[in-house]
Amino acid sequence: MPLLGTRAAGSGKGFGFGGGFGPPIDFQYLVVAGGGASVGSGGAAGGGGGGGYRTSFPGGTAITLVGGENPITIGTGGTGENSYSPNSANPGNDSSLVGDNFTIDATGGGGGAAAVVGGDFPTSPGNPGQPGGSGGGIGSSGGFDGVGGSGNAGGYSPPEGNPAGNNADSPPNFGGGGGGGAGAPGNNGVASGGGDGGAGLANSISGSPVTYAGGGGASTYQGGNAGSGGTGGGGNARVSFPGGIIGLPGTDGLGGGAGGGDGTKETPGGSPIPGNTASGGDGVIILRCPGTDGARVTVTPGTNTKTTLPGGDVVCTFTVSGTLKIA
């Protein structure tokens, strides 16, 4: 269905309308941040949280962008850690859309936590999962109960994401907690396996339904059932691969959290052995405007795209940071 604009008062301020450009344009938006990474672990590792998810489509209030250059920042996924320190993987990075007198942010997903803080497995407690747009899951090595990272770190209404799952302090496999997703919390680990990542949310702003910001699955200790990534780009945990066992990365352009890895364990002499881990998926920003205004819109750099839907609306998709220019 073509969009009908809902232009806000005062939208002609600043360097836009009246500064050599045409009138402001109303856009519906989807802003998704980068997903959280996972960390290699001697026991079970938590899944990375999905990137924060914020949207006006369908049926929400459009934003108004004035003429000139409007900066777009795409949050990249967090980078996986292959060591004991830090004990949680890197969070995803924030995505943002900056207008003349407002900013719309989405918070990067929380990094998944390793099983242990230090010393030989399994004597030490785990590190909590990180907060984020959606929270990162907590690892498990036995001997403690752990809580997953909280979601909606930006404090938005409606919330941008959900918390991660908790771990399982139960043998034989001490499952870690799955990363939270935009549509659902991460699942708790159980005695026999890691929790699945929380589901993302579907959105049709691009012209067809796509699911974004799923959480990563959590891994287990010594076998067991590895958690699956949530729909919307969440990575599966603990997948056999030449050279070791890895967690799969979150999907770029969807803001998925990474699946929990395996393999970091301190040797008796105190030297860490690198684990196998994965990065979160990069985020995305999509803007949609009426076709009558679309001819005045350009996007840069060329990696980003501008398309016209069958109904006439124009969709601008940013997978890397750039600029939306209105003539």
Helix content: under 10%
How many strand segments? 17
Beta content comes to 15-25%
List the uncertain runs.
Answer: 1-18, 117-125, 264-268
Structural class: mainly beta
Enumerate how many helices there are, as a single number: 1
Tally of domains: 1
End-to-end distance: 25 Å
**Biggest pleated-sheet summary:** 6 strands, antiparallel
Q: Taking Cα atoms only, what radius of gyration do you get, to the nearest Å?
A: 21 Å
For the residues shown, what is the average pLDDT?
A: 84
What's the helix-strand series? EEEEEEEEEEEEEHEEEE
Q: How would the global form be characterised?
A: elongated
Task: Write the SSE topology.
Blueprint: E1 25-32, E2 53-55, E3 63-65, E4 68-73, E5 95-98, E6 103-106, E7 201-203, E8 210-212, E9 239-241, E10 244-246, E11 265-266, E12 272-273, E13 284-289, H1 291-294, E14 297-300, E15 305-308, E16 314-318, E17 322-326
What this model shows, in words?
There is one protein chain. With 327 residues, the protein is mainly beta. It has one domain. Helices cover 1% and strands 21% of the residues. It has 1 helix and 17 strands. The strands form 5 sheets. Strands 1, 2, 3, 13, 15 and 16 form a 6-stranded antiparallel sheet that branches. A 5-stranded antiparallel sheet has the order 6-5-4-17-14, with no helix packed on it. It has a two-stranded antiparallel sheet with strand order 7-8. Strand 9 and strand 10 (244-246) form a beta hairpin. Residues 1-18, 117-125 and 264-268 have low confidence and may be disordered.
